[in-house]
Amino acid sequence: QQQVKQSPQSLIVQKGGISIINCAYENTAFDYFPWYQQFPGKGPALLIAIRPDVSEKKEGRFTISFNKSAKQFSLHIMDSQPGDSATYFCAATYSGGYQKVTFGTGTKLQVIP
Amino acid sequence: EAQVTQNPRYLITVTGKKLTVTCSQNMNHEYMSWYRQDPGLGLRQIYYSMNVEVTDKGDVPEGYKVSRKEKRNFPLILESPSPNQTSLYFCASSSRDGNSGNTIYFGEGSWLTVV
Q1: Does B104 touch chain A (CB under 8 A)?
Q2: Contact (CB<8Å) B106/A41
Q3: B44 vs B96, which has greater pLDDT?
Q4: B5, B4, B111, B15: which is closest to B63 by C-alpha?
Q5: Which residues pair with B49 in a beta bridge?
Q6: Cβ neighbours for B19, distance < 8 A, ≥ 6 positions apart
Q7: Nearest chain A residue (CA) to B102
């Protein structure tokens, strides 16, 4: 049962453009939504995360937009660079104690010069 | 340096030959887990452990075993590997962080091919 749907599966963006990856969740009890970035040959690493009490969180060129009523959240990468080329996973979980993390299926981003 | 270390990184084995993928973390994390990553399916949890001697099944536990005898180690055991277990495996650890929720730290992955 897939509780977090992620799109697109792959994305090609020109250098300097905006990359947008979308995720939708079903379980309204989720209260923590992280994004993980995975470079080839490496394990995923936490990039940025948001809680549903805010609609947007920005860290440098990376921004999460959150729409609680639509149960959707998205990652925006501004001024995309070739070094941003990686696979991105959205995820959803609960913040109390250990809670299982449900991952999206991943988006492979390629930023071309 | 905070690390999750897994070995081997690459392995080709034959159907039915038992193998173990080791995992160790140096962050004193209570929680450890194993994931497999397959194209189009993302990261799926195999097993997880909330502490020493406490383990439970994730989403895709069939064909795998785990043990947690020490806090830092969480080996993944394939008793009788089959070709459908060919995958990229990640060990991960996490600890409750009051400010950030559950941040998961992943190892660098183990490529396993079963022929």
Answers
A1: yes
A2: no
A3: B44
A4: B15
A5: B32, B55
A6: B11, B13, B77, B78, B81, B112
A7: A95
Which of A9, A44, A101 is opposite residue B102, by nearest beta carbon? A101
Tell me if chain A has a CB within 8 Å of the CB of B88: no
Q: What is the pLDDT of residue A60?
A: 97
Interface contact A54, partner B, CB < 8 A: no
Whole-number pLDDT of residue B101: 54
- Strand, coil or helix: A81: coil
In order along its 113 residues, chain A shows pLDDT tens digits of 558 999 999 999 999 999 999 999 998 888 889 999 999 999 999 999 999 899 999 999 999 999 999 999 999 999 999 999 999 999 998 776 667 788 999 999 999 99
For chain A, percent of residues with pLDDT exceeding 70:
95
